[in-house]
Amino acid sequence: MRIVLLGAPGAGKGTQCKRISARYGLLHLSSGDILRQERAGGTELGKKARSYMDSGGLVPDEVIVEMMAEAINKAPQAGFVLDGFPRTVNQAVKLDESLTGNGQKIDAVLSLNIEQEVVSERMTGRRSCPKCGAVYHIKTLKPKVEGKCDNDGAELVQRPDDSLDVVKNRFRAYNEQTKPVVDYYKNNSTVYDIDANRGVDEVSTLVFDNLDSLVKV
Ligand code: AP5
Fold it and tell me: Does the beta carbon of 106 lie inside 6 Å of ligand 1?
């Protein structure tokens, strides 16, 4: 299965992708996580991405398309779930071209729909593990020990781009550049609209109901 998850910043893409990956044995490919790893490793790509990410803008398409093509090529036969990519119509077109070239296609697109007020609360309360990337929330998804990762005990941190000013810009980029991607897929693929305002487990149930119909679990 090849799945794309679309949604505003903080809509719950990463949270649901981890669950999809575990349930269907798919590789979870998050463009944001890959960029953060590149930055942490001090690579040229990471250096190029830094200023765009810190201001809440999108990293240029040519950088992202090449980075994600490389990651997708390493995906297992079972398939992958894309989180945060594609984020512009141009990225979606390039992804389709490269999949078609390999005799493949996107099987389903999940569009996580959410109100902006709900999302702001989620982002300001998000905490993540700098070591393993696990994501928590100070109210809705607490770690067992406050401030510590359940997996490795590392001190949880707040993402620097979750500050109010940067969040505003991330929303602007989403509204202007990423929303049209939903329409692109509505014309080219199967799109499932998901009410992402609900709790984590309820959203997962909606997601699985749709994906289970595509694959025998
Ligand atoms: P990226 O890391 O992709 O950030 P994003 O899209 O803004 O998404 P987030 O990671 O903030 O949110 P999410 O939807 O994954 O929500 P999460 O599950 O964590 O990108 C960062 C930057 O990288 C971009 O700004 C850009 O500069 C660059 N970039 C990345 N990809 C790019 C691309 N393709 N092209 C160009 N540039 C690119 O959940 C959020 C919080 O809410 C968590 O605390 C979670 O526990 C909680 N939560 C989740 N679901 C629920 C629920 N149902 N109920 C209650 N709480 C919930």
Answer: no
